[in-house]
Specification:
Its EC number is 2.7.13.3. It is a multi-pass membrane protein. Residues 63-190 form the GGDEF domain. There is one protein chain. The chain contains eleven helices and eleven strands. With 420 residues, the protein is an alpha+beta fold. A hairpin with a 3-residue loop joins strand 10 (385-391) and strand 11 (395-403). Helix 7 runs antiparallel to helix 8 (232-253), helix 9 (265-282) runs parallel beside helix 10 and helix 10 (302-319) packs antiparallel against helix 11 (371-381).
């Protein structure tokens, strides 16, 4: 409310001052030194060419000149909430606030889309601090906006218009980058807190279930002279379940202590095959390995990569209730090494595919629901991507894409679908 009233007053002042200036110019035809005569209608902003001439004139004088560039596009959440016409009026409104506060000391013009250039003659350290404080404090209080800006002053930052504007723009861009980096940190922190909250809630739920079971058995045993022998095995199963859950949770939540080495992916796959082949055969399944590029090397933590593939193969085996086949394929696709783990199991329902990587989500009667979440985290730690395709009743394919060494991150944002 206060902002709207203040802006309305400023706009009215600009209209009046523009009309008075126009009438005075018609009678006076000669510009007063230091005050350019040509302004935009209604906005009261000096025309760009006139601003240049005015600034050049100030620089010919011995007094220091202060230049400020202000980006009116750099706003807080108001930028998303305000309609486009409101944002389009922001430069005029902010220029009005500056003009009212600094009267004839400031000459203001547009400097590109949504930007203002301001020049102050006879400026010193006190003037600079006054302008900075006004932009940071007063405008933010009145409008709720966070602006990025840059200053330059003669002769320290240059002695020509071009030098001063370039320096001010450089400082403004640096400040904008700093603002966005701080926002990213805040967003990332909020996201981490949200995830921690979800994990804590899930962990509490998962631990409460076995504790409730144990409590029930102990209450029953009370009427039996505290003889827990009939329920001993079930109590121990619930305790083991809690122990497994906490171990998995620690593996998932603790900071990654990864130790990367340049190594062929083939060696990790061979290790996984040696660890799972006997169990796969015992259950009547086949384990097939297809390697079109066995020499592919990547930067990896071998133990983590083995854990990743063990989890996927374990899930594949558990999904096959009849004799089936697990196929591991190694290939190269663009700038990525790709590992596929394919099974002929029951598949995953389409409405579950988006949830399988969420912590504690499981469709099985046993397990912690953290296995695929751990897989997802390992792939992220390697800068890669994990995808899943599933055909209900026919099987599931997990595809892991890991960046090849020496490939800039900007060149591996997309994973080609065709193999080389």
């Amino acid at each position: 409310m206060l902002f709207g009233v203040l802006i309305a007053v400023c706009s009215g002042l600009f209209i009046i001052s523009s009309v008075i200036a126009h009438i005075a110019d018609k009678h006076k035809r000669v510009a007063t030194p230091g005050k350019p005569p040509h302004r935009e209608p209604l906005a009261g902003l000096v025309i760009y060419d006139v601003f240049h001439r005015h600034m050049d004139g100030l620089l010919r004088e011995p007094s220091p000149v202060l230049t400020a560039l202000i980006d009116c596009n750099e706003t807080n959440m108001l930028e998303q909430s305000q309609p486009d016409p409101e944002r389009a009026r922001l430069p005029n409104q902010i220029a009005g606030l500056l003009s009212v506060s600094f009267s004839d000391k400031a000459v203001i013009t547009r400097y590109g889309d949504g930007r203002l250039a301001v020049v102050f003659g006879s400026a010193g350290a006190a003037e600079l601090e006054s302008v900075r404080r006004f932009i940071e404090s007063e405008i933010s209080k009145l409008t709720g906006l966070q602006l990025s800006y840059g200053f330059s002053s003669s002769p320290d930052d240059g002695t020509t218009r071009e030098q001063l504007l370039a320096k001010a723009e450089k400082n403004m861009i640096a400040m904008k980058q700093d603002i966005w980096m701080k926002r990213e940190v805040i967003i990332a922190r909020s996201e981490r807190l949200r995830i921690v909250g979800e994990l804590a809630s899930g962990m509490a739920h998962e631990i409460r279930n076995p504790l409730t079971t144990i409590k029930g058995f102990l209450q029953i045993s009370r009427s039996n002279g505290y003889n827990i022998e009939p329920w001993y095995n079930m109590i121990m199963e619930e305790i083991d379940r809690m122990s497994e859950l906490t171990a998995e949770f620690l593996r998932f939540s603790k900071p990654s202590a990864t130790h990367f080495v340049l190594q062929p992916v083939h060696t990790c796959i061979q290790r996984v095959i040696s660890l799972t082949e006997s169990e796969t055969t015992r259950l009547g399944h086949r384990l097939v390995y297809e390697a079109s590029h066995p020499s592919i090397q990547i930067w990896m933590d071998p133990d983590k990569l083995v854990q990743l593939m063990l989890n996927l193969i374990k899930n594949a085996i558990e999904s096959m209730h009849e004799q089936g086949q697990v196929t591991i394929a190694l290939m190269q696709s663009g700038a990525f090494a790709v590992v596929e783990v394919k099974d002929t199991g029951t598949g995953i329902a389409p409405d579950e595919l988006d949830q399988i990587f969420q912590p504690f989500y499981t469709s099985k009667d046993t397990g912690t629901g953290l296995g695929l979440s751990i897989c997802h985290k390992i792939v992220q730690d390697h800068g890669g991507l994990i995808e899943v395709e599933s055909d209900l009743g026919k099987g599931t394919t997990f595809r892991i894409s890991l960046p090849l060494p020496g490939v800039p991150e900007a060149n591996r944002t997309a994973v080609p679908s065709e193999t080389d």
